[in-house]
Design brief:
With 294 residues, the protein is of the alpha+beta class. The chain has a single domain, classed as TATA-Binding Protein, CATH 3.30.310. The chain is built from 10 helices and 13 strands. The strands form 3 sheets. It has a 6-stranded antiparallel beta sheet with strand order 3-4-5-6-2-7. Helix 4 packs antiparallel against helix 5. The protein is globular and about 45 Å long. The N and C termini lie far apart (66 Å).
Length: 294
């Protein structure tokens, strides 16, 4: 009996230490202009039952783009879990003009985003991973790795931010409706040179998420990703801004960027050491923060 218990503990510990990659390589599509490849991928996803939320073609990265979709099962899990879990509503699929297709690994991202609540959604996440594999193919994982044990409490270094950092808070409003309208209005007028990629609003749960394109010529997505050489992990984009009750948040960059690119060294991240605070300024303008730069 004691031997059986020891074996069970060993197997459980082994499963928690299993390395999980953030991205998966799909099957290759026919090379074409990036927008054309994105259209082909979007059509494939729609035919498989995914709902297309939007697409993003960073103008500073003409060979790369992202299609964002949602899955009914995951949406139902997020609705049940509530709160900041809304940040995981968008499923990101990367495309490249040479026909390369990549996508976020649900097992990685939902362990990070759902954290302690992940076991409640694990079957749904596994089903989503199988659905993506069937639709887009399932090649090698890439982009670095983290363990199942570490992802729920992930931070890049001791003392750095985790998913639930207080630094995520950008602005507070008198109500959920006002918070959402503020974000929608500011995105519509391209505040801080941003634009909307997608939005998901669940008014009955008082939570919403917006995929935001940051288009600034010197500070935008294309610039900072190029600085760290992260283009092949384009499915890290777009950055999310989310609303829970009357508050508007965005995951702080030292968490959101680090968890997106776990294969990169401190030397890479030092190239964009000012980016987390620049993102706060840009998304703060969208959120309606009184101190945000316009």
């Amino acid at each position: 009996m004691l031997k059986f218990f020891a074996l069970a503990v060993m197997l459980f510990s082994s499963s928690l230490s299993w390395a999980i990659t953030p991205y998966i390589l799909g099957e290759k599509f026919k090379p074409a202009e990036t927008a054309k490849v994105a259209d082909e991928v979007e059509a494939r996803l729609k035919s498989a039952g995914f709902q297309v939320l939007g697409h993003y073609l960073p103008h500073q990265l003409p060979d790369y783009g992202v299609v964002v979709v949602s899955d009914e099962g995951v949406m139902n899990e997020i609705r049940a879990l509530g709160g900041s879990n809304i940040v995981g509503a968008g499923i990101r699929v990367g495309v490249k003009s040479d026909g390369t297709v990549t996508y976020m690994n649900p097992d990685y991202w939902y362990r990070a985003f759902f954290r302690g609540q992940f076991p409640k959604a694990e079957k749904t996440v596994s089903a989503l991973k199988e659905k993506l594999a069937k639709t887009l193919g399932a090649g090698l994982g890439f982009g670095g790795d983290e363990t199942a044990e570490d992802l729920p409490k992930y931070r890049y270094l001791v003392g750095m931010e985790r998913f639930d950092s207080e630094k995520n808070l950008l602005a507070q409003h008198v109500s959920f409706d006002e918070a959402v309208k503020t974000v929608q209005d500011n995105l519509a007028k391209s505040a801080a040179r941003t634009s909307k990629v997608y939005e998901v609003v669940m008014p009955e749960k008082k939570m919403a998420v917006f995929g935001v394109a940051m288009n600034d010529e010197t500070l935008g997505d294309g610039r900072w990703i190029a600085k760290i050489g992260g283009q092949e992990s384009i499915a890290a984009l777009p950055y999310e801004l989310y609303v829970v009750n009357n508050s508007v948040y965005a995951l702080f960059g030292r968490y959101r960027i680090a968890v997106s690119f776990p294969n990169l060294s401190m030397g890479h991240f030092m190239r964009i050491h000012s980016t987390p605070n620049e993102i706060v300024d840009m998304l703060g303008a969208v959120a309606g923060a009184k101190t945000a730069k316009k």
